[in-house]
Design a protein that fits this description.
4 strands, two-stranded antiparallel ribbon, 370 residues
């Protein structure tokens, strides 16, 4: 069954990739005709008039692919049972996220306008069944979260959405890391026999493959918030469904490792702004990709390095989904160690940069003076 579905998914990936390539070309032509360009700001590394509506092509091709894969071909070929109510409600929430990003791309929204809607969408999902209720412990047993699962879910889903959005700072970076993540989560879903969710990841993979030729440096089009927020929403919500036995500890741990680069960059940004007494949701040009770009002097090199590191983390995440117990804890520790070495090599701090924290001395991200 798994091999049969792998063949079907391969067909879905290539079909969606072709459709995405065609739609991206159309969106690019449409954007130039109506001058729908990205805003040039000091913190951005690109210049010139570049459209930012690539998310329209990504989500349109992915949506068509998923509809065909889930409701037509999948049902006829595999006679699989689908929870139509869950799929429709999840798709409705995804549509709201997409249009939120599209409005931001066209008219511009600040964080205080976007976050309430993002939280409302996550609340909606929580009350229709996408919930974090129990976490299993490595030494056995379960921790029942009760109402505390709601803030954890809000933090996770909204965090992943904005992490993908934040990492979209160099040509092809967000698309490349999202592609690696979608392939990894496809493998996890396939191994655990969750074929409907694997089809979503196959559609996402194909849409990104078709979009990337237009997005790698020098980019001709950006995915915009309509793309990055939607991709983050898909990855964040379906991550909660990735475990074979609905083990949310495993699901979130695997997804955390796969998405470690954007999540780590988001955490560093919040710490940096908090320390510098700046608004937490303000923009700056001191993200991981900015620093690596400054070190290498090349967008392509910086993107390639980060995508390769993300691929290593993703491979580790897939392995975590295949093992039980303490090996998962060891994998997470290795991930944190590698992440620590990455930010240290990017000069976020030296071992002398410390501050007092609850009476102790701890390392704190701080830019080195050169």
């Amino acid at each position: 069954m798994a091999f049969k579905y792998l063949l079907f998914s391969s067909f879905l990936v290539f079909s969606v990739a072709f459709l995405s390539f065609f739609l991206t070309a159309l969106v690019l032509k449409f954007s130039h005709r109506f001058k729908l360009y990205d805003r040039n700001e000091e913190r951005k590394v690109h210049s010139g008039s570049i459209p930012r509506l690539g998310g329209v092509a990504i989500m349109a091709s992915m949506g068509i692919g998923i509809l065909v894969g889930e409701f037509l071909v999948g049902k006829l070929v595999f006679s699989g049972s689908h929870n139509f109510k869950t799929i429709i409600l999840w798709g409705l929430a995804l549509a709201v996220v997409f249009f939120l990003g599209l409005v931001d791309d066209l008219r511009g929204l600040n964080a205080y306008q976007k976050f309430p809607i993002q939280f409302a969408i996550t609340l909606f999902l929580y009350f229709v069944g996408f919930r974090i209720e129990n976490l299993s412990l490595p030494w056995g047993g379960n921790l029942h979260l009760g109402i505390w699962g709601l803030p954890l879910e809000l933090l996770w889903v909204v965090g992943v959405m904005n992490a993908v959005n934040i990492i979209d700072g160099l040509d092809g970076l967000a698309a490349g890391i999202s592609l690696v993540a979608s392939l990894s989560m496809f493998a996890v879903f396939l191994v655990h026999g969750k074929y409907p969710y694997a089809a979503v990841m196959a559609g996402m993979t194909g849409s990104l493959i078709g979009f990337l030729p237009f997005n790698i440096h020098p980019a001709r089009i950006f995915m915009g918030d309509s793309g990055s927020l939607s991709l983050g929403f898909i990855l964040g919500t379906l991550a909660m469904k990735s475990s074979e036995k609905a083990n949310l500890t495993v699901s979130l741990s695997v997804a955390f490792v796969i998405l470690f680069i954007p999540l780590m960059d988001t955490a560093l940004a919040l710490l940096r702004r908090w320390k510098n007494k700046k608004p937490l949701f303000s923009a700056d040009n001191d993200h991981i990709h900015h620093r690596l770009f400054n070190k290498t002097g090349s967008q392509r090199k910086a993107v390639l390095i980060l995508v390769l590191i993300s691929a290593l983390f993703s491979f580790n995440g897939v392995l975590m989904a295949l093992v039980d117990g303490y090996p998962r804890v060891f994998s997470i520790l290795i991930t944190f160690l590698v992440g620590f070495l990455v930010v240290w090599r990017l000069d976020y701090f030296s071992f002398r940069d410390t501050i007092g924290f609850f009476g102790s001395r701890v390392l704190f991200p701080k830019r080195r003076e050169t």
